[in-house]
Structures are given as structure tokens and as C-alpha cells.
From TrEMBL:
Keyword Secreted: no
Occurrences of domain FAD/NAD(P)-binding (ranges): 4-300
Annotated Gene3D superfamilies: 3.50.50.100
UniProt keyword Ribonucleoprotein, yes or no: no
UniProt cross-references to PANTHER family, sorted A to Z: 64 KDA MITOCHONDRIAL NADH DEHYDROGENASE (EUROFUNG), APOPTOSIS-INDUCING FACTOR 1
UniProt superkingdom: Bacteria
Cofactor(s) this protein requires: FAD
InterPro entries the UniProt entry points to: FAD/NAD-bd_sf, FAD/NAD-binding_dom, NADH-Q_oxidoreductase
Keywords on record: FAD, Flavoprotein, Oxidoreductase
Similarity comment: family membership: Belongs to the NADH dehydrogenase family.
One Pfam family of this chain: Pyr_redox_2
Protein name: FAD-dependent oxidoreductase
Length: 392
């Protein structure tokens, strides 16, 4: 009887996990099914480009996994029962239920409104393909001189604000951060960022704690009104509520608590990767929600699953960071070198060279998803252990 592995989500982490498992395990012994609501792989790290009308390559998941033995099920996950080992889904034919022996939970995250009134009603976001396309449609309606405010001073906010400002120089673009904008960067990188904002005409509002969003912009907790005809909310991400509705042990963030192999600490048949999992990285610090964390988490989970199923030793590895890549439009960028625990080093690459490195990293991540079984040597081993032995 084949061991049933179900992977929920086919973003960077889910796609990498499924492809790596297909490369590690013998197809006679396992059946790997990927469940994803969208028929295509979505390059989430490029959603700010999508929001400005740039054409992105379509990668149908059926093509991505062609010839790998991985089954693709286009459906929306509605519930998970980790005690019975089942997943409820809905597709064009209606409701269905999938059974699993091992579950890889990679449903990712969406925009976090932090409970701020008016965000859901009056703000846009770029956390998903559909949302980014709605931003594009709204920007197309704006005439010269219209105001656009990006809320959030982190990586997503910086990339979104600069992309909009570069593609639409006729608009009045601003960015607001609850602390500083890009304040974690090195002195060199911050100086370059300030220069780029000035060059693109982006107004910066720092220490702007947003208390409310309405049709005319935002109001800060200090009573300042920042006008905007379009508000784009990029102030962090939150996990989907499905995991929290199960008996899995989850953190206050809604993330599934996992060990250093990405295995649930409460349910040994469940692994969580990417934004959905709360794992420790270098220095004992939680891994941040990012592609830079998610792909290594997927590799780690897939290798651990394969090792446990085939009775082999699980590789010992701590996930750490080397750099952060920030695009500032299509012709400018920052590559900030960081310590393994994600603290900025003095060194950074800026300007055209930074943009080229960022594009190389993004293109490489997309290519690796499109070629899921090329990234590791083919060692398709046979499943040897019983279920009781696997969950120990």
C-alpha cells in the first residue's frame, strides 16, 4: 500500500517540498498529492510588479510537476482534521475529502490588518495574485497628481512604493511606517534608500502608527491625516485560520509550532513549512515569514520525511540567512548582507548591481520551482518502516 503524502499549498515552499519528496522517494511506495487553489504557481515575491501592470510568466502546476509523479489537485482547503488524518477541500465539482499518512502544511499567509478599523473596507494589499491585480486596476483609474499611500516600512512596503513611483511618476506616492522605514538596514543601505525615495519623489512618513483607514486615506494615532486616493496595506502578514481551528499546537501568531525538522510538536504526521510554521533558526531566533526562510524549511521537511520513511539518518542543519534583497523599481536595488540570525552587516550592494542580484535571486527561485526535481540528485529510496515506527 502506498504511503499517502498530501502537500497543502504550491507556493515556493509547497512546490519545493513536493518536488524534493518526489526526488527522494520511490514512486511505487508513495503517492504525493499537491492541493492548491490556483492552477498556476504564483511568484509572490513579484506581486508588486504585478500590481503595476507588468506581465509575469505563467507556470501551470500541471506543467511544473509533469513527469514527476506528483498529482496536482486544484481545490480550496476548507478544513483539516489532524486526528483523523483528513483534509476537506472544495473544487469545481463540489466538496471532497482527502486522507493522508503524512501532511505537509504550506498554506502560507495573507495580509495582516492588525485589527485596524477600515483596512478591509478601504485598503488594498499585494499578498496574493488577485489582490495585486486589483491594485493594478485601481491604479489604472488614477489620473496625474493622484495620491497613493503604502502603509508598512518593511521589505514589501518599500518594494511596492518604489515600484509604483517608478512606473507611475505622475502619481504622488508616499510610504508610512509605524517605526522607521527600512530602519533595520545598515547605514550604507539606509542612505541609498533615502536617496532613492528622493529620486522617485516618494514622501516618507516615519513613526506613523495608523489608527484608522477610510476612503480619504489614513489617520494616525497622533491625529495626523495622511491623504490617499488609494491605500495599499503592507504592514505584515498573518497565517490562514485553518491550522488554529485544529488540535495542532499553534503559537499566538496562528503558526504551527514545529521542531528543527519542521515536524509538528503535537502531531508527528504533520509538517509545516514557510509562513505557516514557527521554527527556530540560527541563534534560536524564530524564522521570519519570507521566501528566504520558506524554501530552506521545505528542503528540511522533505529530507526529514524521506529519511524517516526510509529508515535513514535525518541530516542535522540549522537554517540561517546570508542576505536580504530589496528591489527599488526595475533599475535599482539593495542587497543587504546579514548575519546567520538576520542582523544587518555593514556591507551592502546598492544601485544597478543590487537590482541585478535581486533579479537573479528571484529568477532563480522561480526556475527552481519550475524544475522541482532538478535541484537535488535523484535517490529514490524505498519506504521501509511501518507507520508506528515512523511516528516515533
Amino acid at each position: 500500500m502506498q504511503h499517502r503524502i498530501v502537500v497543502l499549498g504550491a507556493g515556493y515552499t509547497g512546490a519545493h517540498a513536493a518536488g524534493r519528496l518526489a526526488r527522494r522517494l520511490h514512486p511505487d511506495d508513495v503517492r504525493i498529492t499537491v492541493v492548491n487553489a490556483d492552477p498556476d504557481f504564483v511568484e509572490r515575491v513579484r506581486n508588486h510588479q504585478l500590481a503595476t501592470g507588468q506581465d509575469l510568466r505563467h507556470r501551470p502546476l500541471t506543467e511544473v510537476f509533469a513527469g514527476t509523479g506528483v498529482l496536482v489537485r486544484q481545490a480550496r482547503v476548507t478544513a483539516v482534521d489532524v486526528d483523523r488524518g483528513t483534509v476537506d477541500v472544495v473544487d469545481q465539482d463540489g466538496a471532497d475529502q482527502l486522507a493522508y499518512d503524512t501532511l505537509v502544511y504550506a498554506l502560507g499567509s495573507t495580509a495582516d490588518d492588525h485589527g485596524v478599523p477600515g483596512v478591509a473596507e478601504h485598503a488594498h494589499h499585494v499578498a496574493g495574485r488577485g489582490a495585486a491585480l486589483r491594485v493594478h486596476e485601481r491604479l489604472r483609474e488614477l489620473t496625474a497628481g493622484a495620491t497613493v499611500l503604502v502603509v508598512g516600512g518593511g521589505l514589501t512596503g518599500i518594494e511596492t512604493a518604489t515600484e509604483i513611483a517608478e512606473s507611475r511618476p505622475d502619481l504622488d506616492v508616499a510610504i508610512a511606517g509605524s517605526r522607521g522605514v527600512g530602519d533595520w538596514l545598515s547605514d550604507k543601505a539606509r542612505e541609498h534608500l533615502r536617496g532613492t525615495f528622493h529620486r522617485l519623489g516618494v514622501t516618507v512618513h516615519e513613526h506613523a502608527d495608523i489608527a484608522r483607514v477610510d476612503e480619504a486615506g489614513v489617520l494616525t494615532s497622533g491625529g495626523e491625516r495622511i491623504p490617499a486616493e488609494v491605500t495599499v496595506w503592507t504592514a505584515g502578514f498573518t497565517t490562514h485560520p485553518i491550522a488554529a481551528a485544529t488540535t495542532l499546537r499553534v503559537a499566538g501568531t496562528g503558526q504551527i509550532v514545529v521542531d528543527d525538522t519542521m515536524r509538528s510538536v503535537s502531531h508527528p504526521d504533520v509538517y509545516a513549512v514557510g509562513d505557516a510554521g514557527l521554527a527556530e533558526g540560527a541563534g534560536g531566533k524564530p524564522l521570519r515569514m519570507s521566501c528566504a526562510s520558506g524554501i530552506p524549511m521545505a528542503w528540511r521537511a522533505a529530507d526529514a520525511i524521506a529519511a524517516r520513511l526510509t529508515g535513514r539518518t535525518i541530516p542535522d542543519k540549522t537554517i540561517g540567512y546570508t542576505l536580504q534583497c530589496i528591489s527599488l523599481g526595475r533599475r535599482d536595488g539593495i542587497v543587504q548582507f546579514v548575519t546567520a540570525d538576520d542582523e544587518a552587516k555593514p556591507a551592502a550592494v546598492t544601485g544597478w548591481a543590487g537590482a541585478r542580484i535581486k533579479e537573479f535571486v528571484c529568477a532563480g527561485a522561480g526556475w527552481s520551482v519550475a524544475h522541482p526535481t532538478v535541484m537535488v540528485p535523484s535517490r529514490r529510496r524505498r519506504v521501509t518502516l511501518t507507520r508506528a515506527e515512523r511516528v516515533r
